């Protein structure tokens, strides 16, 4: 009788453990808000379905409200794999154990892009010095190209941008930076070359309406990064699926971003320059401008 009760308890316990394990097999992907959130989720849907089929687990996708939220959600284990900018990846790396998986290789530029400062084509702004007393817009304090690189530029010139500019705005996305300049909400702003070129290609903006007054050195592209405690088999399958998506589901990749020709496995070494910038800017900067969600 005692053995029978023990057996029943073991069966119940195993059932509970299996049930818990099944719940944990759901994979949640989080992405930084580089474009309109609803548009990003809609365009990523074919990739989500493809990943769900390849990984054999339910896949959820969310776009976080800001860059810091992605870091916090991964710390809280509500997100398993995150799509980061270069600097937000390094910031997240300082907070938790991460494993970079894949990075996009874009048509014509490979795995690198640039930060740009743009203004109206008919403005009187032709240089960084001309920005004094203007209304300037950043993307988000966590954006590599939309904040960190321009911030480092101003710092290298001993410019306190909060005093240098008449007004400072945060548009929230690269697309909104372009729109805010187009609509005269801001005189100039920081934007990713990739996102700017996409807006031009899609006919959303006219390149003739803008002037580029500064462009950074090469920045490594945005990686998909997993929490290191996520099942290794899932990580391997995710990596393999995205590395091969351009061969088996090219239309899904094109739907999300037609400038991406393929995904490649991440070489950690390409982010050394970003780690160096993070070191120069310091831990206080990282916390104040990057890891605190608004």
What does this structure look like?
The structure is a single chain. The chain is α/β, with parallel strands linked by helices and about 290 residues long. It has two domains: about 1-105 and about 220-290, Periplasmic binding protein-like II (D-Maltodextrin-Binding Protein, domain 2, 3-Layer(aba) Sandwich); about 115-215, D-Maltodextrin-Binding Protein, domain 2, CATH 3.40.190.10. The protein has twelve helices and 13 strands. It has helices spanning about 1-25, 35-55, 65-75, 85-95, 145-155, 160-165, 175-180, 195-200, 230-250, 250-255, 270-280, 285-290, and strands at about 25-30, 60-65, 80-85, 100-105, 110-115, 115-120, 135-140, 165-170, 190, 210-215, 220, 225, 260-265. A six-stranded mixed sheet has the order 2-1-3-12-4-13, sandwiched between helices. Helix 2 (about 35-55) runs antiparallel to helix 10 and helix 9 packs across helix 10. The N and C termini lie far apart (about 60 Å). About 35% of the residues are buried.
Number of domains: 2
Q: What is the annotated CATH architecture of the largest domain? A: 3-Layer(aba) Sandwich
Q: What's the alpha carbon Rg, rounded to whole Å? A: 22 Å
Mean pLDDT metric = 89
Strand percentage = 15-25%
CATH topology of the largest domain: D-Maltodextrin-Binding Protein, domain 2
The low-pLDDT segments are 4-23
């Amino acid at each position: 009788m005692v053995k029978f009760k023990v057996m029943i308890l073991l069966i119940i316990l195993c059932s509970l453990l299996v049930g818990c394990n099944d719940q944990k097999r759901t994979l949640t992907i989080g992405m930084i808000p580089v474009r309109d959130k609803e548009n990003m989720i809609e365009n990523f849907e074919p990739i989500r379905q493809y990943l769900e089929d390849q990984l054999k687990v339910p896949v959820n996708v969310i776009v976080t409200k800001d860059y810091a939220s992605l870091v916090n959600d991964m710390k809280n284990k509500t997100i398993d794999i995150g799509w980061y900018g270069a600097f937000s990846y390094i910031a997240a790396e300082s907070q938790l154990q991460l494993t970079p998986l894949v990075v996009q290789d874009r048509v014509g530029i490979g795995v690198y892009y640039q930060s740009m400062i743009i203004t109206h084509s008919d403005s009187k702004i032709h240089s960084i010095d001309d920005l004094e007393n203007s209304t300037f817009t950043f993307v988000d304090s966590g954006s590599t190209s939309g904040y960190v690189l321009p911030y480092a530029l101003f710092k290298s010139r001993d410019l306190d941008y909060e005093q240098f500019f008449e007004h400072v705005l945060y548009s929230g996305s690269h697309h909104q930076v372009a729109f805010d300049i187009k609509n005269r909400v801001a005189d100039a702003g920081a934007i990713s070359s990739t996102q700017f070129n996409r807006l031009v290609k899609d006919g959303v903006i006219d390149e003739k309406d803008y002037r580029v007054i500064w462009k950074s050195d090469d920045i490594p592209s945005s990686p998909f990064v997993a929490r290191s405690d996520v099942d290794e088999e899932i990580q391997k399958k995710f990596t393999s699926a995205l590395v091969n998506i351009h061969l088996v589901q090219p239309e899904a990749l094109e739907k999300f971003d037609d400038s991406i020709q393929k995904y490649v496995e991440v070489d950690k070494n390409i982010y050394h320059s970003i780690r160096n910038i993070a070191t120069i800017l310091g831990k206080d900067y990282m916390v104040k401008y990057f890891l605190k969600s608004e």
